[in-house]
């Protein structure tokens, strides 16, 4: 990645010059012998070169002078951000080429940079992906700055706003009018509200991805978010919102492919029921820490194209709701369930999974008390199961692992954490699962270090990771950039119980207090398993190439 010149030092006693690498910006090393002098390596005879026209002065010649700008820009693409900054300081030409070919730009969006915005975007006039971030203790860029950016960068396709609290609905509207080619918008910790988002959806007809997190303008009195009939929205992610139900019309749109709702307050059953017309195109749904019950899962069950489902810490969901989903969603390939140790999802729901999800490839069970009966049925019926994670279950022991080893012939990646297994169960994996390539065993107290070496001797191609290994963060995820499970809490606080004795999710009150409680609850059990499936899939994709 380092750009270098080549300097030739020629000694009068040597018939031919020898080359010596010389880093850009550094002076040549002084020769020890006074008779040695520095010259340049000429590719042609001196009579064909005009030294003055090519800048040959005092031993300084740029060998990239004849290199086309496109080639130089292509070389810059292989450099890190820091190296590109240093390269832009070499000469005016490199500064120009770097600026003309920068497509990604991230700015510290403090109000102090407002006077410099014209200069910044005069240099970087080809930016298509822009990130504006501001810390909590500073004043961010305002509507005026956002308007300047929109006029200078009308070809933006991706924008990320973080902590830009001075931007209002009017600023978002003016930005949307000038950046009509925007395809992805991600905003968090901002103060604009529904009007600004409606303006973006109205003017940016090709918008495909929308991510909204902790927007204070989305409150109880906010107007509904409306979607035009010509919209091309494909992905929605809602996080930590007080009144995320205003996005109801977006969730119900027939063009939507992916839906993620995480730690949002209020009842979500009615919103999810809007998919009940049977025309939904949703293929992926992620629900985490929500007030959603079997009624909402019943609405999800009408999404016949569903392939990926995450049900994470939703205490009102039970076996009934899970069964309704798997019975109707025949294309389901990935299923993640975090039961939060409430034991409302167990063998009954997993038996339905085994019966109906014949195309299942990935299964993650956390805090779910699965037994031999349900795991045996899954291992027998789900012949395509390649990735399996069993975490935090007190009912999974050596017998269940032996069953999986015997019947899961397609299993490639297996993660076990916090289960009552011993060396006997691990040894069973050496005799079964012929396609197993990676095994991760964490916090299983009855498993000793000796079995790891024993397993490696018998399955030399098997990658084994245990508690005393130096390797950490090994995951199991299929899909490269997709994050299957961010974190899995080993001991999470139990959900709030309402006055009637039923399990519920804390709601009401101010957004700051609610979100603070959510964060504190997550940190309370921060003995996390950095879950599973991500790094493994990336290595698998690399090996396949």
Strand order of the largest sheet: 4-5-6-7-8-9-10-11-12-13-14-15-16-17-18
- Counting helices, strands and paired strands, the structural category is alpha/beta
Distance between the termini: 23 Å
Q: Estimate the helix proportion, in percent.
A: 25-40%
Shape label: globular
The largest sheet, given as strand count, sense and whether it forms a barrel, is: 15 strands, parallel
Question: What this model shows, in words?
Answer:
The protein is α/β, with parallel strands linked by helices. Helices cover 29% and strands 17% of the residues. It has 18 helices and 20 strands. The chain has helices at 69-76, 81-87, 92-100, 117-123, 143-152, 169-178, 194-203, 248-251, 269-273, 294-300, 319-328, 347-356, 372-381, 398-407, 423-431, 450-458, 511-524, 534-544; strands at 4-10, 18-23, 37-39, 104-108, 129-133, 158-162, 184-188, 209-213, 235-239, 258-262, 284-288, 308-312, 334-338, 362-366, 387-391, 413-417, 438-442, 463-465, 488-489, 528-529. The protein has a 15-stranded parallel beta sheet, covered by helices on one side. A 3-stranded antiparallel beta sheet has the order 2-1-3, with no helix packed on it. A two-stranded antiparallel ribbon has the order 19-20. Strand 5 (129-133), helix 5 and strand 6 form a beta-alpha-beta unit. The longest helix has 14 residues, at 511-524. The two termini are 23 Å apart.
């Amino acid at each position: 990645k380092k750009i270098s010149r080549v300097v030739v030092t020629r000694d009068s006693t040597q018939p031919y010059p020898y080359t010596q690498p010389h880093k850009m910006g550094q002076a040549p090393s002084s020769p020890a012998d006074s008779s040695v002098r520095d010259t340049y390596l000429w590719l042609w005879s001196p009579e064909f070169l005009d030294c003055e026209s090519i800048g040959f002065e005092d031993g300084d010649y740029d060998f990239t002078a004849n290199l086309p700008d496109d080639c130089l820009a292509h070389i810059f693409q292989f450099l890190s951000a820091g190296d590109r900054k240093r390269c832009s300081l070499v000469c005016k030409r490199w500064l120009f080429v770097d600026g003309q070919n920068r497509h990604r730009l991230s700015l510290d969006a403090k109000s102090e940079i407002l006077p410099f915005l014209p200069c910044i975007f005069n240099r970087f006039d080809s930016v298509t992906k822009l990130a504006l971030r501001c810390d909590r203790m500073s004043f961010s860029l305002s509507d005026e700055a956002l308007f300047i950016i929109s006029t200078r960068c009308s070809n933006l396709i991706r924008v990320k706003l973080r902590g830009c609290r001075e931007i209002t609905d009017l600023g978002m509207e003016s930005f949307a009018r000038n950046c009509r080619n925007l395809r992805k918008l991600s905003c968090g910790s901002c103060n604009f509200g529904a009007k600004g988002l409606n303006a973006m959806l109205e003017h940016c007809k090709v918008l495909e991805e929308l991510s909204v997190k902790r927007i204070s303008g989305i409150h109880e009195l906010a107007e509904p978010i409306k979607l035009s009939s010509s919209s091309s929205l494909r992905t929605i992610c809602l996080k930590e919102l007080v009144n995320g139900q205003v996005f109801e019309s977006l969730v119900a749109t027939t063009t939507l492919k992916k839906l993620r709702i995480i730690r949002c307050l209020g009842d979500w059953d009615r919103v999810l029921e809007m998919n009940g017309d049977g025309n939904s195109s949703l293929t992926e749904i992620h629900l985490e820490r929500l007030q959603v019950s079997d009624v909402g899962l019943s609405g999800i069950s009408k999404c016949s194209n569903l392939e990926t489902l995450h049900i994470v810490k939703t205490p009102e969901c039970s076996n009934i709701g899970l069964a309704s989903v798997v019975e109707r969603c025949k294309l389901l390939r990935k299923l993640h369930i975090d039961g939060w140790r409430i034991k409302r999802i167990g063998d009954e729901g997993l038996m339905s999974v085994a019966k109906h999800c014949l195309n299942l490839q990935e299964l993650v069970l956390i805090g779910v008390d699965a037994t031999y009966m349900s795991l045996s049925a899954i291992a027998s019926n789900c012949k395509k199961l390649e990735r399996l994670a069993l975490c935090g279950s007190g009912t999974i022991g050596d017998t269940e692992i032996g069953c999986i080893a015997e019947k899961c012939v397609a299993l490639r990646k297996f993660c076990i954490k916090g289960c009552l297994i011993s060396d006997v169960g691990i040894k069973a994996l050496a005799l079964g699962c012929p396609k197993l390539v990676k095994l991760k065993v964490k916090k299983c107290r009855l498993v000793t270090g000796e079995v790891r070496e024993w397993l490696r001797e018998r399955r030399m191609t098997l990658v084994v990771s245990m508690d005393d290994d130096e390797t950490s963060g090994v995951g199991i995820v299929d899909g490269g950039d997709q994050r299957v499970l961010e974190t899995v809490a080993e001991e999470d606080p139990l959900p709030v119980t309402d006055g009637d004795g039923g399990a519920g999710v804390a709601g009401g009150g101010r957004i700051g207090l609610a979100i603070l409680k959510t964060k504190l609850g997550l940190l309370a059990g921060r003995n996390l398993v950095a879950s599973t499936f991500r790094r493994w899939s990336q290595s698998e994709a690399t090996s396949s190439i």
